[in-house]
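Model it.
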Amino acid sequence: MSDGRSIELFTGAGGLALGLENSGWRHDALIEWNRDACATIRLNREKRFPLAKSWNLIEEDVSSIDYTKLFKDVALVAGGPPCQPFSLGGKHRGQHDRRDMFPEAVRAVRELCPMAFVFENVRGLMRESFSTYFNYVILQLTHPTVARRPTEDIEGHLRRLEKRHTANLPDDLQYQVVFRCLNAADYGVPQNRYRVFIVGFRSDLGRSWAFPKSTHNYDKLLWSKWVTGDYWEEHKISKSNRAAPPAKLESRIERLRSDYVLFEPSGLRVRTVRDALKGIDSPLRNRLSSKWLNHEHREGARTYPGHTGSQLDEPAKTLKAGDHGVPGGENMFADDRGMLRYFSAREGARLQTFPDDYEFAGSWSECMRQIGNAVPVQLAQTVGRSIRSQLN
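Modeled.
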């Protein structure tokens, strides 16, 4: 049975850590080297944020950590290795990018022998151009003791892993590994955010596990807007101020009206930007108020081809950190008055389901970089709870 002890690599601003803590895991350590992300962790620890007040932050490069000397009996290893090598918005250098930290994730599993692990990354990792390397990562996590030799190149190591895997030989340590691309919106996050989750259970435990079922449904949002009108009534939006349904959705809405005359779509409706920002003042009215943390207005929002921002009554576009600063198009929206503006860092945090009293250190650009790199807290909590339930 798991006692809930875990460690996390590549912690960043703490989205995955918060979600796992919410689902019953207790971190022995959070390992992060980025100065600003560490400042955020320390800030919340010092202000005694409930989930962060006892976090043990190790501010070092993961490659310098000797896990065998620091930790024992860890049940879960978690982390989000830097995604830029595989991001659609990055340089697409994959395993040739010096920021590829999957080898360090594998080493942590090899040295700690946890009951389970969970790693998150961008869906670009599953692109055809990275398919061989992705298979290589999965095989390494399946057979972590089959380590790469000092004089061995990646292709040679991959061939040796393939032989070991197909021979079905007993390993000192072996994991049953599954992966899936999840959309955070399907689990209650007000943002279309596709991420690959890789989960493994130690083979000797004999556990069977599947990814949690989705809880939220886009058809249910269409139903509540264009069939019953419940969505608009909930937000007190008059008929004259309701956005017209996009032409590309008209046939889908008509199908809903005919197919669900008696039975509405199952599940909860996906959440929208308007849902996420409910109850929070506009940053334009927050300039002299300290009620909201990290809620300053940022000037200069504008559209340009391919970057038109998020729609208020739809799940947000994926918040992005950017390879060279914050990309504005993905991090802005048009408010009720039609004014195009950037999300404040607090609004971005809400789209990533961070608690309102969790504070970020740094400028708006730096805060948005941390938020854009984070795992949505709600999604991390859902996956973490499912893993912990299976181990118990």
